[in-house]
Specification:
By secondary structure, the protein is an alpha/beta fold. Helices cover 43% and strands 16% of the residues. A hairpin with a 2-residue loop joins strand 8 and strand 9. Helix 2 crosses helix 3 and helix 3 packs antiparallel against helix 11.
Length: 279
């Protein structure tokens, strides 16, 4: 069972959208897809018509003017800074949730139940019907205060990505024989730091915190000889030279930033997959 985990990271999801192109070209055909936060968006777009739909999504929403229209939609801002109706319509355009319930692949999303604090992987193998699957998929990218949580029965679902972005153990439990993790933020900052001031140290601490929070479940995982718990494992991440400041800049909603992330994701994935030799 080949597992593809699509990590989160806000607009950095454009990186894994580009990586999806290379994954498809390489011929890695996943049996299980798990989407976390922005990765949940990429998963839904991918089910419509492959990687190009994921790429097109980030191209379409990355324009600053588009985001401003999403912010100034004349809504009740207590429900979230972004217009949930506007964003969900874009994410779900062309998605057939009834068909996804019948899909041979295990399509899953990472969510947290705000009532219990429990993070879980849920999708077309766990939910009773298409409406529940839609709710779970919406919950995967519902990050307060940007977007409101999603109510499903007695549950209140939200983005589980910052709490557990890379569910490697869950992938193994699902029967993974190979795992590819599209990691939008490199887990470990580049070497070379030396403590020269409190300001510099604070910046470094913030960078480590950001990178770890973006890779919970992976950053401390024991990866031995490109394997996790005996399962061949590959993490596809941005280059180590991509510093914290640059990451913050490319997260801003700009068309050129989206294009940079998409092309970088493609290049990094193609290089990593070419060198990968699963045992």
């Amino acid at each position: 069972m080949k597992v593809l985990i699509l990590g989160g990271g806000g607009t950095l999801g454009a990186f894994s959208a580009g990586a999806l192109r290379a994954v498809e070209e390489y011929g890695f055909v996943p049996d299980i897809l798990i989407g976390s936060s922005a990765g949940g968006i990429n998963l839904l777009r991918y089910t419509v018509n492959g990687p190009e739909e994921a790429v097109a999504f980030w191209d379409s929403v990355a324009e600053f003017g588009t985001v401003v229209r999403g912010l100034l939609g004349g809504r009740n801002f207590s429900e979230g800074l972004l217009d949930a109706k506007w964003l969900r319509a874009r994410v779900e355009a062309g998605v057939d949730f009834e068909a996804l319930m019948r899909d041979r692949r295990n399509l899953a999303f990472l969510v947290v139940n705000l009532k219990t604090g429990k993070v879980s992987v849920r999708g077309n193998r766990t939910e009773a019907n298409a409406d529940a699957l839609r709710a779970v998929s919406r919950g995967a990218y519902a990050l307060p205060p940007l977007l409101p949580p999603v109510v499903l029965g007695q549950e209140v679902l939200a983005d589980g990505g910052l709490l557990h972005n890379a569910p490697l153990n869950a992938a193994v439990k699902l029967g993974a024989t190979e795992i590819v993790y599209l990691c939008n933020v490199r887990a470990i900052p580049k070497d070379g730091f030396s403590k020269t001031s409190t300001v510099r140290s604070s910046w470094r601490y913030a960078e480590i915190f950001f990178r770890r929070a973006s890779n919970v479940g992976f950053v401390d995982a024991e990866i031995v000889d490109e394997s996790f718990r005996g399962v061949p494992f590959l993490a596809i991440a941005p280059p180590a030279t991509l510093g914290f400041g640059h990451v913050m800049r490319v997260m801003l909603p700009r068309a050129e930033a989206a294009q940079y992330l998409i092309s970088t994701g493609y290049d990094c994935a193609k290089r990593a997959l070419t060198q990968w030799r699963p045992k």
